[in-house]
């Protein structure tokens, strides 16, 4: 995968290479700029923001915004807890559902394989649409204002099942499975003892995609959680309701620690909250990146 | 011996099928409950939905609500903001369809030839980052630049003595902004997909081309692009299938749901959401989303057939 072209093969002369390198450095800079701005602003002082706006070069720094976030405590910690809970449980349950399905589909001797394949492909082509999803969730399963409503949508994805199926089929030697069968292993045992331990890379890939998907999800909360249930809000949805969240946070902070002498730095609190949400993504990203690339490579080849 | 073995194998097959089916059941149940069950909801689009309190959804939908045929669709199409909505949806999708292929392919070709490997890895990582930020985050990052009082851009404008712009009230800029943000977010991801496809190309092709005196552009147009054709067409087909579907977050959350921006930001998805959640207009909302998924499904199949045919003719 990482077999990029050595300088010898490269079509670039040294000069072209410098120009292209510069171009990409600039592109990276542009890509990173908005995130950088948010970071800097979250550490700027209130006074600096009122004078200079959200600036890359604030004239004074302060941790005021973070002091508020910490002091308000419960509200944000609760949201963080919700996000973590939803992300972890969705990832784990999703894998528990998808792995066995992918395994069944990967076995050529399985007779219902093609029927099952069509069964999971149809939802890729056609869906009932928002209204009926909403009605089914709220009126048949009564999931509004529950964690389940935030976890269930997107738990399985045909795309990931197919990626896993391809990996199981190509990377786990068939002879191994045949041998296990001769020894009297059931398929469940083959899956848990042989196939899954051999397929860690693809499982990690799917897990990482799911983690990012759920960490970033806010649409289900928009649909299914009403404003009387703020205790169920995940972090992303706290951000969607930014103005109300800032009110709650400053009120709580002032209540708990008596910071009443001046106006709360709403403009920097806003950005500090964004940082709280981005930070885990930024920290985990370098570790996760190689798994992401495996998945994308499989996706691109199999299309 | 043959006679004795056959029935045994048959029994073994049965047991295997049974076991494998059992393994597939949990996911299949999920598919039934959350993908197939909502599919009956296409009926909403052809009914005038009237809910009587205290009665089940199915009774309300199938018994209590009268059939209205295609009325929902004709009302929907005749409603005053529909032309704008349809135009926006198609406009942004066509733009993203083109830029989403041209720019990443261009960047992927440029980046694969860069000498520094570590540099290339760093670039990929940084360009990929926006893809894994949610639209909510992207919305606030943009807010840092565009906020009327504190925004970085208005601040710079002030330094140059220009008038501050009320960005969130000025629809004329937002087509450009939304397209830019859309490209910014997905560029790295698509680029890496194409890079993976490029690294899968047989290196000896390039070597022999270089021996024959082919320059960089000859190689790109005669080797890289033709080899990327499968990947490009696959992604093209998939995107054609969502021609009426737009990224809800981009058009709802990034403009912070500003009312004065609606003429340029409202797409079908935003309409479907608003008709359902803000106006509780089940019929229009479901008619619109039925339109989305059926048109998408049709286009997907048609373009798949056409491209399949073209490939066969070429071969």
Characterization of this structure:
In chain A, helix 3 (64-72) crosses helix 15 (266-302) and helix 4 (74-106) packs antiparallel against helix 11 (200-215). Chain A folds into 2 domains: 14-72 and 241-302, no CATH class; 74-224, MetI-like (MetI-like fold, Orthogonal Bundle), CATH 1.10.3720.10. Chain A is mainly α. Chain A has helices at residues 14-42, 46-52, 64-72, 74-106, 113-125, 130-140, 147-151, 158-171, 174-182, 187-198, 200-215, 219-224, 235-240, 242-257, 266-302. Chain A is globular, with a radius of gyration of 25 Å. Helices cover 74% and strands 0% of the residues of chain A. Chain B contains 14 helices and no strands. With 315 residues, chain B is mainly α. Chain B has 2 domains: 2-64, no CATH class; 79-314, MetI-like (MetI-like fold). Chain B is globular, with a radius of gyration of 26 Å. Chains A and B meet through helix 1, helix 2, helix 4, helix 5 and helix 6 of A and helix 1, helix 4, helix 5, helix 6 and helix 7 of B.
